[in-house]
Amino acid sequence: MANQLETLFKLQRLDTLLLEKQKTIEKYEAELAERRQAIAVCDARIEVQAAARKELVAQRALAERRISDTLELLKQRRQRLQKVRNERELRAGQEEVSSGQTELSEAETLVLELMGKVEEMEATIELAKKERAGLESADHRQVSETAERVQKLRQDLATDRDARDVMAAQVEGGLRKKYELILSRRFGLAVVEVDDTGCCVGCHVQIPPQTLIEVRKTGAVRVCPMCQRLLFIGGSDPETAPI
Ligand SMILES: [Zn+2]
Fold first, then answer.
1. CB 184 within 8 Å of CB 221
2. How far is the CA of 85 from the centre of ligand 1 (A)?
3. What is the 81 CA–ligand 1 centroid distance (Å)?
4. CA of 238 to the centre of ligand 1 (A)
5. Which residues have C-beta under 5 Å from ligand 1, the single-atom ion?
6. How far apart are the CA of 18 and the centre of ligand 1, in A?
């Protein structure tokens, strides 16, 4: 059983490395996802801005149409003014022309205003597109670098897992299950060493001398009374020395 615990202790070292590699892969993938998310947000904003621009352009076209209609109307009213037969028709005709001029001036003001808004919106869209292009080119650089890194890590991980499985197969099934269960509950530390003073390295509680004797002499599987981790008393093998 002493050998089994020693193997478990080594297995734990491998499992810790595997977990670190897995976390590194996840970190890289999260970074990539974040960048893609930023691009998607940019795209959505450009879409909203493009719709707003389209609406402004339509309003501008309507206002321009109103100018040409009003010009035509003014032309007709001025022609009628030439043919007035009396003072009353003259006054009415002059009023018509004057109100037409007011309308024309309003329509012209509106067109100018809308032209300004369209230009402003186009400048905003241009900026957003530049921002997106920046994100995308940075993304391309990062994607290829990160993809390489992730691929290398995944290969390492596969090799390490094979080594891990070979080692795990050397541990008796029941003990291995116990180890894996504790590992999942105790933050990646299932097998702990007992230090020179007879304390659990995991939680620093003093291990009863009787337990220490049992572990040392018979290699019995015992757990720390406080943290419930498997106790291991290291030999002279440097491989099993604490990390
Ligand atoms: Zn403990």
1. no
2. 115
3. 107
4. 23
5. 200, 202-203, 224, 226-227
6. 24
* CA–CA distance, 96 with 114 (Å, rounded to integer): 27
98-128 burial string, b = 16+ CB within 10 Å, else e?
eebeebbeebeebbeebeebbeebeeebeeb
Residue 136's pLDDT is 84
Q: Say if residues 192 and 227 touch (Cβ distance below 8 Å).
A: yes
Give the Å distance between the CA of 172 and the centre of ligand 1.
Answer: 23
Residue 4: pLDDT band (50, 70, 90) is: confident
Q: Which residue has the higher pLDDT, 208 or 139?
A: 208
9 residue type, one letter: F
pLDDT at 241: 42
Amino acid at 82: Q
Q: Kindly list the structural domains of the chain, giving each domain's residue range(s) and its CATH number in brackets, ordered by start.
A: 22-169 (1.10.287.1490), 173-240 (no CATH)
Q: Mind giving me the DSSP string for 203-223? A: T-PBPPHHHHHHHHHH----B
CA 232 – ligand 1 centroid, Å: 11
Give me the DSSP letters along 218-235.
H----B-TTT-PEEE---
Dist. CA 15 → ligand 1 center (Å): 20
Q: List pLDDT tens digits, range 178-221.
A: 998 888 887 678 999 999 999 999 999 999 999 999 888 887 88
Gap from CA of 227 to ligand 1 centroid (Å): 4
